[in-house]
Amino acid sequence: MKTKYGNSKKHINSGLDFWLMKNSSSNNLASNASRVISLPAQLALRLRLQIERGEYGFGDKLLSVNKAAITFKVARDTVEKAYALLRREGLISSIPGKGVFVERVPDTRLRVLLLFNKLSAYKQMVYDGIVTGLGSGASVDLCIHHYDPAIFSELLDRHLGGYHYYVLMPHFFEGTPESMVLELLERIPSEQLLLLDKMVQGANYLGAVFQDFFCDICEGLCAMREMLRIYNALELVFPSGSHHPKEIIDGVRYYCELDSKAFNVSFSGLGKAISLTSGSVYIVLREQDLAEVLLLAKNTGLILGRDIGVISFNDTALKQVLDITVVSTDFSQMGNFIADMIQRKMFSSKRNPMQVLLRGSV
Fold this sequence. Notes:
Layout: H1 9-22, H2 27-36, H3 39-52, H4 65-72, H5 76-88, E1 92-95, E2 99-102, E3 110-116, H6 121-134, E4 138-144, H7 149-159, E5 165-168, H8 178-185, E6 193-197, E7 207-210, H9 213-223, H10 225-228, E8 233-239, H11 247-259, E9 262-268, E10 280-284, H12 287-300, E11 309-313, H13 317-321, E12 325-329, H14 331-344, E13 349-351, E14 354-357
Parallel strand pairs: 3-4, 3-5, 5-6, 6-7, 7-13, 8-9, 8-10, 10-11, 11-12
Antiparallel strand pairs: 1-2, 12-14
Helix pairs in contact: 1-2, 1-3, 3-5, 4-5, 6-14, 9-11
């Protein structure tokens, strides 16, 4: 088939195949790759390597579409698609009437994009675990999707194609259809997608490190069974309108059924006051609610570990000082696990270990 420039498609392929073979450490690998990589992707790879090698520097002007088509013996459409791929990576930008310019010199290190649902002290531990585990040989960027599928979609539009791995915390607004989440995840190549903190049923991914919220709280309470025998009820203080996993409610309820204890959920926030009853254990998820429970206990003369019990989620230095019993996952370890998978290229689905820190509040 003849192109506008009089070169057959076979001839074009042969030219790019030859270039890939010449610029690869393995002729066989390059030959195999060229048969499955599209022409625009091959051209984008060539230009990317030229930028990495310093043949084009920051701000340098690339060939126009017409000149590139003639130089590389490809169709204009191929050049336009190759430039679009590089533009999506953020490597080049186009200025109408002036041309195409190098916007960013690519980092040749391993590139990892973290897509977290929010910022918090605990997420910082995960982040630090990943960065420390990967070391200086990797470039790690962080984006926040704020539980919003629309923001997550925009982040994918902006960053897909620019990283080797995408590490996602798939926590979204309550009521977000599972089909929507799956559709978004399908945009990321499964061999590049790693899930963190939470699993997504039906998703295709490379590896995962997750919390099992149902089992973690249920097993944690079972480990405290002897200490909890003096109490006749458990009350979960659950923040109204929060993004906390509902599996926590199910896990506490299941334990209460096993141990024949009364169970109640009180929803905090939105002007709802917490009330305390002697003989109950209060399981608190937020620090704000923990402070309210402790202040109320002090004002009513209820003694922790005798009249009422208090269990909190996720440890902090302040909870250690206040002698609060905690059910916690190891966030640093979660980050280390993901980093280790990436470093060793040995991927699996791994449940992050839960720990119970028994103190005087039960």
